[in-house]
């Protein structure tokens, strides 16, 4: 069985005991959270409008990490103008502990 959850403005397809990297969640490492479910899949799929009633996904925060560096380099030719900006996105690694379906 799998579930589709939404966190950080993005949707993720998750299964039990799966480790997923999602956008940063404000929680300590080792904390457990419950997320609402948009869709339950399996032999008899259930699609919510927008959420599936009585369904939830329990996750455990494994660690907080950061992505690789992305360089934004802008140059205007013949103007002696250039700009270099680096960015690293914050992520949270979570483990799906249980999927409770209705």
Q: What features would you describe in this structure?
A:
- The chain has strands at residues 2-7, 10-15, 19-23, 32-41, 46-47, 56-66, 70-76, 81-87, 90-100.
- It is mainly beta and 102 residues long.
- The strands form 2 sheets. Strands 1, 2, 3, 4, 5, 6 and 9 form a 7-stranded antiparallel sheet that branches.
- The model has no long low-confidence stretch (mean pLDDT 94).
- This is Large ribosomal subunit protein bL21.
- Keywords: Ribonucleoprotein, Ribosomal protein, RNA-binding, rRNA-binding.
- InterPro entries: bL21-like, bL21-like_sf, Ribosomal_bL21.
- Belongs to the bacterial ribosomal protein bL21 family.
Q: What about the largest sheet? A: 7 strands, antiparallel
Number of helices: 0
Domain tally? 1
Shape: elongated
Q: Summarize model confidence as the mean pLDDT.
A: 94
The helix fraction, in percent, is: under 10%
Multimerization status? single chain
What is the tally of beta strands?
9
List low-confidence stretches.
none
Secondary-structure-based class equals mainly beta
How big is the Rg?
19 Å
| Proportion in β-strands | over 45%
Q: What is the CA-CA span between the terminal residues?
A: 12 Å
């Amino acid at each position: 069985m799998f579930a589709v959850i939404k966190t950080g403005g993005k949707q993720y397809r998750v299964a039990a005991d799966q480790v997923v990297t999602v956008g940063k969640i404000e929680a300590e490492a080792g904390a457990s959270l419950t997320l609402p479910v948009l869709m339950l899949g399996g032999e008899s799929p259930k699609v919510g409008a927008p959420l599936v009633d009585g369904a939830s996904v329990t996750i455990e925060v494994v660690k907080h990490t950061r992505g690789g560096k992305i360089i934004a380099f802008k140059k205007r030719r013949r103007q002696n103008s250039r700009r270099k900006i680096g960015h690293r996105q914050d992520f949270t690694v979570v483990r799906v502990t249980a999927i409770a379906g209705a």
